Amino acid sequence: MEIKLAKKYGFCFGVKRAIQLAEKSAGAITFGPLIHNEREIKRLEDSYSVFVENSTENVKDNQSVIIRTHGITKQDLDILKSKNAKITDATCPFVIKPQQIAESMSKEGYCIVIFGDVTHPEIKGVMSYSVSEPIVVGSLEELYGKKLGKKVALISQTTKQTKKFLEIADYLMQNCYETRVFNTICNATFDNQEAVRELSQEVDIMIVVGGKTSSNTKQLLHIAQMYCKDSYLVEDENDLEDLWFRDKKICGITAGASTPDWIVKKVQDKISKL
C-alpha cells in the first residue's frame, strides 16, 4: 500500500511557539491545556514538569503561569495579574488579532458577529473583549432570525472554513446597513485544509492525526470525508484498526495544527507495517 503525506500538515507557527515557550518554562503551570493534544501535553508534564491548571482559584500568588495558545478571557487575565503571576503569554498572535478587533469595533458601536464554536476557549476569550454582547454562530443558518444592528463587524474563529465564513459575510452585507468583514482565519489552517482537500481526492483511505477535541483537526476530518468516505481520526498509532486498510491501495495522512511530528511518524510507521 502506498502512503502519501499531505503537502501541509501538523504544527502551525502559534503551536510551535507555545511549545518552545513551555519548554523554556520548566515548572510552570499552563492555564488550561496549552494545545489540544493530550499526548503532547503529557510529554510536557513528564519532561518539563509543566502541568495544567483549569481554575484561577488554584493559582498561587507569584506563580509562573503560561497562557494557552487559544488565549483566555479578559477577566481571567485580570485575576492572574492581581495575583502577581509571572505570566508567559503563549496566545497565538492570530488569536490576539480577533480579540483586538472585537474590543475596538464594539467600542465604536458595531454589533460583533463571530463565526465559531461558542464553547471553544478561543471564542470565549474573544467574546470577553467585546464591550457589547456578541453574536456567535456556527453556521449561516444559525444567523437567521438574529437581531442585528445597523453596523456589524464579522470575525471568525481562526480554524474555521473560509467558504462558510464567506457565506455569512455575504448574508450580512445584504442585510445590514454597514458590514465590516475581518478575515481572522489563520493562513496555516487554510493551507492545511486545502492540502487535505487535494490529497483526499487521490486516495482510498485517509487518516487524520490529532486531538479529538481539536477544532482544526475535526475540520480536516470533515473535509476529508467529503471526498474520501473511508476517512478516520486517530490520536496516535494505537487508534488504528487493521480492517480499515483491507483492499486499500493508497493511504493519505494529514495532521491537525496541534499534532507533533513524532506522533505522525509513529502513525506512518505502523501503517507501513500493515
Q: Could you give a quick summary of the protein structure above?
A:
By secondary structure, the chain is α/β, with parallel strands linked by helices. Helix content is 39%, strand content 19%.
Characterise the protein shown here.
With 274 residues, the protein is α/β, with parallel strands linked by helices. The protein has three domains: 2-9 and 188-272, 3-Layer(aba) Sandwich (Cobalt-precorrin-4 Transmethylase, domain 1), CATH 3.40.1010.20; 13-92, Rossmann fold, CATH 3.40.50.11270; 94-185, Cobalt-precorrin-4 Transmethylase, domain 1, CATH 3.40.1010.20. The protein has helices at 13-23, 38-48, 74-82, 93-107, 121-128, 162-175, 187-199, 215-227, 261-272; strands at 2-5, 29-31, 51-53, 64-67, 86-89, 111-115, 135-137, 151-156, 178-181, 205-209, 231-234, 250-255. The strands form three sheets. It has a four-stranded parallel sheet, with helices on both faces. It has a four-stranded parallel sheet with strand order 3-2-4-5. The chain is flat, with a radius of gyration of 20 Å. The relative contact order is 0.17. The model has no long low-confidence stretch (mean pLDDT 96).
Structural class: alpha/beta
Q: Looking across the biggest beta sheet, what order are the strands in?
A: 1-12-10-11
Helix content: 25-40%
The radius of gyration computed from the alpha-carbon positions, rounded to a whole number of angstroms, is 20 Å
- What is the CATH first-level class name of the largest domain? Alpha Beta
CATH level-four homologous superfamily name of the largest domain: 4-hydroxy-3-methylbut-2-enyl diphosphate reductase, catalytic domain
Report the major sheet: 4 strands, parallel
The N- to C-terminal Cα distance equals: 9 Å
Question: Total strand count, please?
Answer: 12
Secondary-structure arrangement, i.e. CATH architecture of the largest domain: 3-Layer(aba) Sandwich
Residue-averaged pLDDT, rounded?
96
Shape, principal axes of CA atoms: flat
Task: Note poorly predicted spans.
Answer: none
Order of helices and strands: EHEHEEHEHEHEEHEHEHEEH
Number of DSSP helical runs: 9
Query: Could you say how many structural domains there are in total?
Result: 3
EC number: 1.17.7.4
Active site: 122
Family: Belongs to the IspH family.
Binding site for isopentenyl diphosphate: 36, 70, 120, 214-216, 258
